[in-house]
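Question (not urgent): is this output format expected?
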Amino acid sequence: MIASLHGTIRSKELRAIVIDVGGVGFRVFVGGRLLEIPEGEIVDVFTFLHAGSDSMELFGFSTPDELGLFRSLIKVSGVGPKSAQSILSQNPANQVRQAIIDGDPALIMHTPGVGKKTAERIILELSGTLAQKNTPVEDEVFDALERLGYSRREAQEAVRHVGVDVTDVRDRIRLALRALIKKP
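Got this back:
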């Protein structure tokens, strides 16, 4: 229903911001980087409208990738929108995705309120579907590293060491190679 919002941050709450879009204030539950943006700044937020039995809540994300992973997480039995957003607030989306693909519940379990059983259920239900969904940039990086003779597993491990803020393909390849070379 509401796919995205472009507006000014009018006010901030503990886990939400109010975005003024043409004089209408939308309360959007956010986490991570969006909570750090100061009032008065203009933002673009990708949103998900959750219609519960007694309320409607709008959840916001800084990238379509985060929103997509959020949608996958809330499909898991026992994971609600607030838990899913908390998982993504604690960790970058690419690290959560990689933990699921690798079958490593430790990263997910660091989220308050998410225990071992829930983390394992997330991995069990999503590992197959997320393994097929890399961003075009990640696919390019993996292909380049594989052409250089590295296995897919080595490429994935190296890409994990590259910061999420690095979005240029060449820079990601260079940093991944640096991680592979430093590997004992």
